């Protein structure tokens, strides 16, 4: 009777140094997806008033904006001068109608961040139709909202770099690295 071979990496997957095919840190879609304009990538960005990026997130072109809101805000890390923890909470969030959802407003309220987000007409209509049960409309300051163009201008400054404006990289991690290099250039 032959002696059984000791369990090796082929039989016992837990003993392998790395999983078959290597580690994967790439998204399944490589942040590429079909939207109205064809294949595309969405760049979700948080930036400060001087147009410098604070947090970046890539998704496929067809991905919605609202589900990425918390991820973008969680990526904010501003080191303090001297000692102390990095700042992770912005003073205020200015966002467009795409980010107006109950989940996003609850997220901001729990973290104590004031928000200036307009309410889309359909949400306002639903609130009116519910009558008293619809609740009070969220506060909205038109004067503060005028500064929301900062994010659009911040994206345009990043896209002054040709490699950011036209995605040449196939892999999402490499494209994100190109965007981060452009962001570093903005900070210098």
Automatic annotation (TrEMBL):
InterPro entries the UniProt entry points to:
Transposase_11
Q: Where is the Transposase IS4-like domain?
A: 40-182
State the residue spans of region: Disordered: 1-35, 116-138
Q: Which domain of life is it from?
A: Bacteria
GO MF:
DNA binding; transposase activity
Q: What biological process terms from GO does the record include?
A: DNA transposition
Q: Pfam families from the xrefs? A: DDE_Tnp_1 (PF01609)
Q: What is this protein called?
A: Putative transposase
Source organism per entry reads Nocardia farcinica (strain IFM 10152)
**Species lineage, top-down?**
Bacteria, Bacillati, Actinomycetota, Actinomycetes, Mycobacteriales
């Amino acid at each position: 009777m032959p002696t059984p071979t000791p369990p090796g990496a082929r039989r016992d997957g837990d003993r392998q140094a790395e999983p078959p095919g290597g580690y994967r840190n790439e998204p399944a879609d490589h942040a590429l997806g079909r939207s109205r304009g064809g294949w595309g990538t969405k760049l979700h960005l948080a930036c400060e008033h001087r147009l410098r990026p604070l947090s970046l997130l890539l998704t496929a072109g067809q991905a919605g904006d609202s589900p990425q809101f918390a991820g973008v805000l969680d990526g904010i890390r501003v080191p303090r001068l001297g000692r102390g923890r990095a700042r992770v909470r912005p003073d205020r969030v200015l966002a467009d109608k795409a980010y107006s959802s109950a989940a996003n407003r609850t997220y901001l309220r729990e973290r104590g961040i004031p928000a200036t987000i307009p309410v889309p007409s359909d949400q306002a209509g639903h609130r009116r139709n519910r009558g008293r049960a619809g609740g009070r409309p969220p506060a909205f300051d038109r004067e503060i909202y005028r500064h929301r163009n900062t994010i659009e201008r911040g994206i345009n400054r990043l896209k002054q770099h040709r490699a950011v404006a036209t995605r040449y990289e196939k892999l999402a991690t490499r494209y994100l690295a190109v965007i981060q290099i452009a962001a570093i250039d903005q900070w210098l």
